[in-house]
Amino acid sequence: MTSALMANYGHPELQFARGQGVYLYTADGERYVDFTMGIAVNCLGHCHPHLIAALKRQADTLWHTSNLFSNVPTETLAKRLVELTFADRVFFANSGTEAVECGFKMMRRYHYHHGRKQRVRIISLTQSFHGRTLAPVAACLNPLHTEGFLVGDAGFDQVPFGDLDALRAAISDSTAGIILEPVQGEGGIRAVSVEYLQAVRQICDEHGILLMFDEVQSGIGRTGYLFAHEALGVAPDLLASAKGLGGGFPIGACLSREHVAEVMTAGTHGSTFGGNPLATSVANAVLDVLTEPGFLTQVNQRADQLRAGIDALSEQYPGILAGHTGLGLMVGLRCAGSNADLLKAMATHKLLAVKAGGNSVRLLPPLNISAAEVDESLALLASACADLASL
Ligand SMILES: *Cc1c(COP(=O)(O)O)cnc(C)c1O
What is the pLDDT at residue 1? Predict the structure, then answer.
């Protein structure tokens, strides 16, 4: 079968016809356990009834008005995000990269507004991932993503992950702010340390520069907290959210404290689709479930169960598994062998996961996975390890 799609995703072999909870089904009815969850997007699994109801209700009511007019689901979602987080204001976009892009623009505009026009440069960390539009690509400097695309350095500096001295040395009179993922996703499910994050916050405050967290992947309950930085006890000035926020419906958000948000006066930024009521209705439904009493406690319990199982398998198969990283249900499976081989063996047993940096495999189960489903997944992972061990 030839495809009319561009080849930038390669040529995926698997095609799915429907999903239910933690499972994906092919048109032939073959069932897979999905620990990719659309890359941490379907946070409540496939086809969650509360999300379906919200989408259907909104589809019968109002699809789109643009931001020429306001609408209730969007106003409500912004208020809820403000009440639940460090933020005072929200801008809605349609994806993670747009949420990050908005934050970059705000960092520069903040200094411009206060007469510091030279403060335009933004510092990022090695192995970070912030999206695929030009500014995030320039920030991350992943050769695979930049080659043939960049003009100059586009105003970005990069310092090694976790290195405070390098960070201090990189700050100059032209620095506007710093962006980092509290738990790196694509880079290999690596959390920054509490001490590092506290020091970064202090450095930003000393220099009067802004701190932005990219929680596109680590946010929306994934780590057992609404946002991962809550676990680390350090708040940013700006935060990018997307992925799980819409539970599968495209939406992104840039959250900001008032002193930065106030510079985004009428006309400074915009998005035709941003704040679309279909998207914000579904995101409100996601928050309904996430804020139910005990929901995040259960995320942490399932995470403990999954991680204990990985510990046991790492002891049993030391040549294949080397423990886990990350927080909550943002799980990095460290591979002693090759992560590509492990992913292939897992897929043979119909357990799907995502590759990540640092020779790891990302396990991103739905946040509402049951204890029995965690056990089932661990059994599939054990079978994959047994296959590799017998080679
Ligand atoms: C996925 C991701 C992005 C980009 O999100 P898109 O919706 O693909 O634009 C940005 N930052 C992080 C940390 C991500 O995981």
Answer: 57
- The amino acid at residue 315 is E
Is ligand 1 within 6 A of the CB of residue 97?
yes
> Where are the domains positioned within the chain?
18-34+293-389, 49-290
CA distance 34 to 332: 15
pLDDT in tens, 155-206: 999 999 999 999 999 999 999 999 999 999 999 999 999 999 999 999 999 9
Give CA–CA dist 74/92, Å, rounded: 8
pLDDT given at position 388: 96
Tell which atom from ligand 1 comes closest to the C-alpha of 128.
Answer: 13
217 Cβ closer than 6 Å to some ligand 1 atom: yes
DSSP string covering 139-188: HH--HHHHTTT-STTTTEEEE-TT-HHHHHHH--TTEEEEEE-SEESTTT
Q: Does the beta carbon of 187 sit less than 6 angstroms from any atom of ligand 1?
A: no
Distance 95 CA to ligand 1 centre (A): 7
Max Cα–Cα distance, the chain, nearest Å: 66
Spans in the chain with pLDDT lower than 50: none
Fold for the domain defined by 49-290? Aspartate Aminotransferase; domain 2 (3.40.640)
* End-to-end alpha carbon distance in the chain: 32
Residue 5: DSSP 8-state: S
Angstrom distance (rounded) from CA 196 to CA 188: 18
C-alpha closest to that of 210 among 291, 112, 298, 290: 112
| Contact by Cβ (8 Å): 355, 341 | no
Residues 357/188, Cβ–Cβ less than 8 Å: yes
Q: Is the dihedral of CA 11, 337, 218, 149 positive or negative?
A: negative
**Ligand 1 in contact with 339 (CB < 6 A)?**
no
Which atom of ligand 1 has the smallest separation from the CA of 242?
7
Superfamily classification of domain 18-34+293-389: Aspartate Aminotransferase, domain 1 (3.90.1150.10)
The protein residue with its alpha carbon nearest to ligand 1, atom 15, reads 217
How far is residue 34's CA from residue 247's CA, in Å, rounded to a whole number? 14
Tell me if 78 CB under 6 Å of ligand 1. Answer: no
Secondary structure, 3-state, 190-235? EECCHHHHHHHHHHHHHHCCEEEEECCCCCCCCCCCCCHHHHHCCC
Query: Which of 94, 97, 124 maximizes ligand 1 atoms within 8 Å of its Cβ, making it the mutation to test the pocket?
Result: 97
